[in-house]
Amino acid sequence: MSTKAQISGIDHVGINVPDLQQAIDFFSDIFGFSAVTQLGPFPLDIAWKENNNMHPDTGAVTIKMVHAGTGASIEVFAYENNQGSKSHPGSDDIGASHIGFYTANMDESVEFLKSKGIKFLGEPFLMPSGDTEGETWVYFLSPWGAKMELVSYPNGKGYEKNKPTKVLWSPKGSIKNEALTEEEIKALIERHLELWNEQDEDKRKAILNEIYATDIEMLDRHFIANGHKEIDNFIVSLHRENPNFRFTQAKPVNINHNIARLFWQFGDDAKPDTVTGMDLFVIENRKVQKLYVFVGEE
Predict the structure, then answer these.
(1) Does this UniProt record's set of keywords contain Cytoplasm (predicted)?
(2) Which residue among 175, 210, 233 closes a domain?
(3) Domain count, the chain
(4) Which residues, 6 or more positions from 256, have their beta carbon under 8 angstroms from its beta carbon?
(5) Is the pLDDT of residue 1 over 70?
(6) Is 13 a residue whose pLDDT tops 60?
(7) For residue range 35-56, what is the model confidence (pLDDT) as tens digits?
(8) Could you give the CA distance from residue 15 to residue 186 in angstroms, rounded to a whole number?
(9) Is the pLDDT of residue 173 over 80?
(10) CATH number at residue 157
């Protein structure tokens, strides 16, 4: 018999919410996560409620498992006629917990969450020294009041400088660049064209979050744009200078594994090919990581 439990890692984190649809909308619309499975609603018997310190009059439970990027999944519970406490535990209460979400770009993530009305409990703080040197973190509240955290350390943490034999989980170590199908890549490029033609700010930012990595790099021969904000600013300037112009696809898309080429044209109805060019996409983890722009290419 083994002297240790044969544990591979954390499979999921479970949370209770007052409104299941509100929670799923929050995780999907804000974070881009997706609910994969559902159990229930099904009733719980008296013995189960007693063993789990539940109120006997609480009703049936519905459970959804949410795919949350490269980390553990989130198991969301919602109870009908919930008779349990409606108060969140204080930070110093036994049983208090929070979920920390990793982001490669803290500033843009905070700006996006604030634009969606998310309340923050302070401002991002960069750890200046010690084991967590280089880590930036900030707490925020979910729409139902649960405490959560954003954390970022794109250049690693201080303790890694000592080359420890054991390292903490990092998104860089867990991400595998999954190969997309040609149909998936073509759909992504269609959304890319929609993005560059979209003039509604909220819709444009939603597509940015959907198809571009937060730390995307766009490289034109004359400039480099980093992140969603700089690319969005460039799109806005294009619309301002060319109010009647649209991007359209000029030739079939070329695909080689997770690299693709889009030949495009930009113009109005009278001359749709006023400007022509080619975009080269480097796709990692289902999003565009690098975008090389060649103007004048046919």
Answers:
(1) no
(2) 175
(3) 3
(4) none
(5) no
(6) yes
(7) 999 998 999 999 999 999 999 9
(8) 36
(9) no
(10) 3.10.180.10
> Can you tell me the mean pLDDT for 199-216?
89
Q: What local confidence, expressed as pLDDT, does residue 269 receive?
A: 93
Residue 3 belongs to some domain of the structure: no
106 is in which domain, residue-wise?
90-175
Which token pair is 57? Answer: 């009059």
Question: Do 187 and 106 belong together in one domain?
Answer: no
- Beta carbons of 102 and 112 less than 8 angstroms apart: no
> Where do we find the tokens 């991400």?
175
One-character DSSP codes across 21-62: HHHHHIIIIIT--EEEEEEEEE---HHHHHHTT--TT---EE
Is 115 strand, coil or helix? Answer: helix
Residue 203 maps to a domain: yes
Beta bridge partners, 73, equal 12
Cα 11 to Cα 70, 101, 214: the distances in Å are: 11, 15, 25
Two tokens at 75?
């198991």
Indicate whether 105 and 117 sit together in one domain: yes
State the residue for tokens 């099904």: 42
What would the two tokens of residue 218 be? Answer: 């766009």
Nearest by Cα to 31 from 127, 148, 123: 148
pLDDT bracket for residue 95 (50, 70, 90): confident
User: How far is CA 47 from each of CA 13, 14, 61, rounded to the nearest angstrom?
Assistant: 24, 21, 15
Query: pTM for this structure?
Result: 0.61
End-to-end CA distance of the chain: 67
H/E segment holding residue 132: none
* 147 CA to centre of own chain: 18
SS3 assignment, position 288:
strand
